[in-house]
From TrEMBL, chain A:
Molecular-function GO term, any one: transmembrane transporter activity
Endpoints of the signal sequence: none
Originating organism: Bradyrhizobium guangzhouense
Annotated protein name in UniProt: Branched-chain amino acid ABC transporter permease
Gene Ontology process terms (BP): amino acid transport
CDD domains in alphabetical order: TM_PBP1_LivH_like
Keyword check for Lyase: no
From TrEMBL, chain B:
Keyword list, A-Z: Amino-acid transport, Signal, Transport
Protein's UniProt name: ABC transporter substrate-binding protein
Taxonomy of the source species: Bacteria, Pseudomonadati, Pseudomonadota, Alphaproteobacteria, Hyphomicrobiales
Tree of life domain: Bacteria
Family per similarity comment: Belongs to the leucine-binding protein family.
Domain Leucine-binding protein, first and last residues per copy: 34-374
Keyword Acetylation: no
Record carries keyword NADP: no
Pfam families: Peripla_BP_6
GO biological-process terms attached to the record: amino acid transport
InterPro entries: BCAA_transport, Leu-bd, Peripla_BP_I, TAT_signal
Length: 291, 414
């Protein structure tokens, strides 16, 4: 029985990791293309959640969970055009400061619009409850999230590896000067990637609004875990982030199975061990700007 | 860069210097007309949401007292700050008493932070009214002469819910599984719960200590399912209660979820369709008493939403402090202690008046169990709870739900 319980935690950890992935992937994408560590990423996550709650009371859950990330992605255009664009070639410390400042401004803005008290929303009746497969219990809602994450992962991979858009983006990451010399303007590609990144964060927020507390500081809470995932996976690595997110979910589940009090500490210990062996993270590449 | 003419700068500088020389003494004397009171409460972290209600409650009380003439004919200058964590709480408490000239302190929700403020109060020989901290230990073995405790302690919350559960046949011979916040408050609540289970033939078959920064409870819910309890009991605090309640509804486990601690702010955040079961509360805005209803009306008018129980307790505490200062005609901590130790009675908006017990400084008052209203019967999003009968029953003395002198190891040094 013990083994089955442990296995159940591992499977549940993979599902949880899928959700972490949604937040961390956007963070990693924006970093790979622009070289910017976006500390405001959590703010877009929170906005996604709040807009989704706001829309749900008018339109119901399903349309809201689609529209909310799209609205935030549009905000991403303004974010890229008026803020990030100035910092692609600047000292990384400046973009850290400006995105950190933006995160604080966004949190206060949310407080002003929606108030400091949390807003509440629920999972629609049709997605509630659990499915029992053999001895394993799955939350129906989390299985839905896992399905969406898998589809998005496939979509982003195809976009980056099978389209001309992706070829330009990947070339731009490795040889921006060469791409420019070929007469290709990288700006629109940057805008698109930032839109995609913050849109994914907002989708994470929208999906998690019904099962966590929706409060102004929720963005700051999620940033810690997103950073742990990105650092373990290696900054800028697509598969690194995927593996790290799943690993973090599983390690946490196993730790809670054996030693509940060490549940949260376990992921930091994992990060410590990975960095000890591989300072660039599991699949991280050498980044000249930072080394 | 904008360049200002040098002359303008000089003129501005001279004006500023002049204003400083003339204006500052006026400001200093204006401040001396006010009585400064230090108010600390967490505005960030897992207790931040209910802390922000506490701040609004204290501010409303100060405004009302000031509008009706203040205390000892002077205005209250309420210095309200975010206590964040125990270390910051102690540092700010120290600063408020030593540098800002606060005559006394009130506030706090976190039991861990309240404990550090209590130590600062004792060192400085100034009174501290702990408004929202519930750990039994604070009014038990850690009690001190300068600290007063306004919220109901953990033992009372356990007794309020436990009595209601017993009446529903959910205690005797039942298997309980508890989820407990891993800090002084949670440990303390679990201890009170264990005493209750022991006295009522219930079995505790599993307990998980949960760090205060946990937001995802799925691994713990799997452990609950493995244990197959009769009742799951939530001993968490703040945002964590909301997260657990939401995720419990998500997983749809068949075991009833009850809890020994909940604030109405957490219940509202959880949403009507997610919360069920029986829980304790110290106050709710539907309580029918003139004092409570006047407070609810004033708060709702200012903030567009009804007050949460922490808004009420910080409001009522500052009000009874003002009353005490006006009666004793003094802000001296020694005189205030002597006044409260005479067990003066206060209208706190409940059926029965409340008083501070002389030997442990606990505000003795009624508590309530509540259940959740069906969604279609709610008047608005805040009308979620159905209050049970106040405990103790009207014929029983108030102290019957509080720890007795034998159970509560409080020894105050003179």
């Amino acid at each position: 029985m013990q083994f089955e319980f442990l296995l159940e935690q591992v499977v549940n950890g993979l599902v949880l990791g899928g959700y972490y992935l949604l937040i961390a992937l956007g963070l990693s994408l924006i970093f790979s293309v622009g070289g910017i560590v976006n500390l405001a990423h959590g703010a877009f996550y929170a906005l996604g959640a709040y807009i989704c709650v706001e829309l749900t009371s008018r339109l119901g859950f399903s349309p809201s969970v689609v529209i909310s990330p799209l609205v935030v992605a549009l905000l991403g255009i303004l974010f890229e055009r008026f803020i990030l664009r100035r910092f692609y070639t600047a000292d990384p410390i400046l973009s850290l400061l400006v995105t950190f400042g933006l995160a604080m401004v966004a949190e206060q803005a949310i407080r002003m619009i929606w108030g400091a008290a949390p807003v509440s929303t629920e999972i629609p009746q049709s997605f509630r409850g659990s499915i029992i497969v053999g001895d394993f219990l799955f939350s129906r809602y989390r299985l839905l999230i896992l399905g969406v994450v898998a589809a998005i992962l496939l979509g982003v991979w195809l976009l980056l590896h099978k389209t001309s858009f992706g070829r330009v983006v990947r070339a731009g990451i490795q040889q921006p000067d060469m791409v420019a010399a070929l007469g290709i303007r990288l700006q629109p590609y940057m805008t698109a990637i930032v839109m995609l990144g913050v849109g994914l964060a907002a989708l994470g927020g929208a999906f998690f609004a019904p099962i966590t507390t929706v409060h102004p500081a929720m963005g700051a809470d999620i940033m810690t875990i997103a950073f742990v995932v990105v650092v373990i996976g290696g900054l800028g690595s697509f598969w690194g982030v995927v593996i790290a997110a799943l690993l973090v979910g599983v390690v946490r589940g196993i730790a809670i199975h054996f030693e509940p009090a060490a549940g949260e500490a376990s992921i930091y210990i994992l990060m410590f061990l990975v960095l000890l062996v591989r300072p660039r993270g599991l699949l991280g590449e050498r980044i000249e700007k930072f080394e | 860069m904008i360049r200002y003419p040098r002359r303008t700068l000089l003129r501005a500088g001279a004006a500023f210097a002049g204003a400083a020389a003339l204006g500052f003494p006026a400001i200093v004397s204006a401040q001396a007309e006010k009585i400064r009171i230090g108010h600390l409460t967490p505005l960030t972290g897992f207790l931040g949401v209910i802390g922000s209600y506490a701040q609004l409650g204290a501010k409303l009380a100060a405004d009302e007292v000031n509008a009706s003439g203040g205390i000892l004919g002077k205005q209250i200058d309420l210095l309200s700050e975010d206590s964040i964590n125990p270390a910051t709480a102690a540092t700010k408490a120290q600063r408020m008493l030593e540098q800002d000239g606060a005559v006394l302190l009130l506030g706090e929700i976190s039991s861990a932070s309240a404990l550090t403020i209590m130590q600062v109060a004792e060192r400085n020989k100034k009174v501290f009214f702990s408004t929202g901290a519930r750990s039994d230990a604070l009014r038990g073995k850690s009690c001190n002469k300068y600290s007063f405790h306004c919220d109901i302690p953990n033992t009372v919350m356990v007794n309020a819910v436990g009595t209601a559960l017993s009446q529903q046949g959910m205690v005797k011979g039942k298997k309980f599984f508890t989820l407990t916040a891993d800090y002084i408050f949670g440990h303390d609540l679990l201890k009170a719960a264990k005493i209750f289970f022991g006295a009522h033939d219930a079995n505790l078959i599993g307990d998980e200590l949960i760090a205060t920064d946990v937001t995802d409870f799925s691994p713990y819910l799997l452990k609950v399912r493995q244990a197959k309890p009769d009742v799951v009991c939530c001993n968490l605090a703040g945002n964590q209660v909301t997260n657990l309640v939401k995720q419990y509804a998500e997983f749809g486990l068949p075991y009833p979820l009850v809890g020994f601690n909940l604030n109405t702010g957490d219940a509202w955040a959880a949403g009507a369709g997610n919360l069920s079961g029986t829980w304790p509360t110290v106050w709710y805005h539907t309580l029918q008493s003139p004092t409570s209803q006047a407070f609810v009306a004033a708060f709702t008018k200012t903030h567009g939403k009804p007050p949460e129980n922490h808004a009420w307790i910080d409001y009522i505490t500052l009000k009874l402090l003002a009353e005490a200062i006006n009666t004793t005609k003094s802000t001296d901590s020694g005189e205030l202690i002597a006044y409260f130790e005479k067990q003066a009675q206060f209208d706190i908006g409940k059926a029965r008046k409340a008083y501070f017990r002389t030997w442990d400084h606990q505000l003795v008052q009624e508590a309530y169990p509540f259940t959740v209203k069906p969604k279609d019967q709610m008047k608005d999003q805040w009308d979620m709870l159905v209050l049970g009968d106040a405990v103790p029953a009207a014929n029983d003395p108030l102290e019957t739900i509080y720890p007795t002198r034998e159970q509560n190891p409080c020894e105050m040094k003179a």
